[in-house]
Amino acid sequence: MSEVTPSNIISKEEIKQISIDLDSKVKITKSKTSLNKIKKNLKDFVQQQKKELESIEANVRANPNYLENENIKLPEKKNKVVLLHSGYFSPVHNGDIELLLVAKKFHEDELNAFVAGALLSPVHDQLVRTKLDKDVFIQSKHRIAMIEKVVEDSEWIDIDTWDAAQTRAQPLGTVANHLANTLKEKIPGHKSLKVCLVVSATNLIRSPLVGFDSKLVNLCVVGTADDKTAVAHIKDNYEKNQGVKISFAECESVIPSSEVACEHFKKGTLTSEVVSESVVKHVQFHLLGGYALKDEDL
């Protein structure tokens, strides 16, 4: 074993420089609305409906009385939606994904809609600095990198970095309207495709939402049965004054909040029960939050 001497002991300054070098390798925030998954899902949906119609037509040609069978179901015309969930994601946590899963199931089961995909939209650093304590602030480039890891294997969830890449924080209505207009521009063959902003009942009650284009954006509020009364009052006000259609997706239990993830991040105690393994690895590797090196560690 080699002798430990002052010359081969890494210094505090060197460790700090390593941390800076690692941080510099994380890509800076650029505006990107990832639509590939949405486009693929829409294409698959259209092709599936086409196949079902072709099968029915073939059966009718073979048997003119085929449609008299009450068990035959024609492909239904469905509203097509893209879910949007905006947040601090400091860091992104399991509750963020669960929120989208509840909203997706509600749209499919209760509204008979086709969910083409969902986008997580991290807010601008300016807003995170304003709203969160300094010790739980994570730069957008790290928040985005963690989201990208979390959704990379998902067939329907992706990321929209437009808000985070702007020169200043944007109102939520502006973010939702921008996505709706982007979908119209980039996926012109689906004019009925609509954006549905997904929020928790707690966030809706805390923070009024304004500035939505009711022709382009709907609102889906996710909460428990205990939230129904409060949400119903807000729903009436929104629909009357802003014309925004609001639906309530009920979940059986309270979805974990970002406060829990922030607290674990601050203490350096994140686990897979709170966030994905990739998030834990990212904050550890980049020495963020409670994982940052302290003088007593050096």
From TrEMBL:
<dbReference type="GO" id="GO:0000309">
    <property type="term" value="F:nicotinamide-nucleotide adenylyltransferase activity"/>
</dbReference>
<dbReference type="InterPro" id="IPR051182">
    <property type="entry name" value="Euk_NMN_adenylyltrnsfrase"/>
</dbReference>
<feature type="domain" description="Cytidyltransferase-like">
    <location>
        <begin position="87"/>
        <end position="186"/>
    </location>
</feature>
<dbReference type="GO" id="GO:0004515">
    <property type="term" value="F:nicotinate-nucleotide adenylyltransferase activity"/>
</dbReference>
<dbReference type="InterPro" id="IPR014729">
    <property type="entry name" value="Rossmann-like_a/b/a_fold"/>
</dbReference>
<dbReference type="GO" id="GO:0009435">
    <property type="term" value="P:NAD+ biosynthetic process"/>
</dbReference>
<keyword id="KW-0808">Transferase</keyword>
<protein>
    <submittedName>
        <fullName>Nicotinamide mononucleotide adenylyltransferase</fullName>
    </submittedName>
</protein>
<keyword id="KW-0548">Nucleotidyltransferase</keyword>
<dbReference type="InterPro" id="IPR004821">
    <property type="entry name" value="Cyt_trans-like"/>
</dbReference>
<dbReference type="Pfam" id="PF01467">
    <property type="entry name" value="CTP_transf_like"/>
</dbReference>
